Amino acid sequence: MKAQNTRNLDLIKGVSIFKFGTDTSEIKEKRLRSRSLQDSRHVVYYQYTGDSLKTIFNVPVNEVLLYYYKNQLFRIDVNFGSLSKEYTSQEYNQVQQQLEKLYGTEKVKLAMSGAVILGGFRWEGKKINVDHSRHSYPPKRKADNAIVGEISFSDRNLTRQSVLDKT
Questions:
Q1: Residue range 33-55: average pLDDT?
Q2: How many whole angstroms separate alpha carbon 131 and alpha carbon 146?
């Protein structure tokens, strides 16, 4: 299989049953997590409660979060690992290799505030970004810390609008 490049990112319309730009009513199996995010009253996010996305690249998915700006899906976070189950370096490498096969090796290192990055990259298209990370948070107590990860798919235009909209 020939490695693709970041131009293929712009062909992404969503992930699994989730499509960018769709209305909140399109997905019935979800639970509201927050009415306000990123200092914008127009951003809400939900935890997907269905079972359409159990694994990605044969790695178990812990949860899926769906972010909406003015009722339009603009970001999909697929989370791996939890307090009781680490997102292992082997799982991270497995996902990373598949993402590189799809989107190429033209990527930038990720930085996150408040987290210790154990591995993370971003593929940037003109319309779509894909972030993949493995990280932990500095624990107050050792029992509170976990090594987790995520793949975040985001529509750049709607993300930009949500960040600029502070009303």
A1: 82
A2: 19
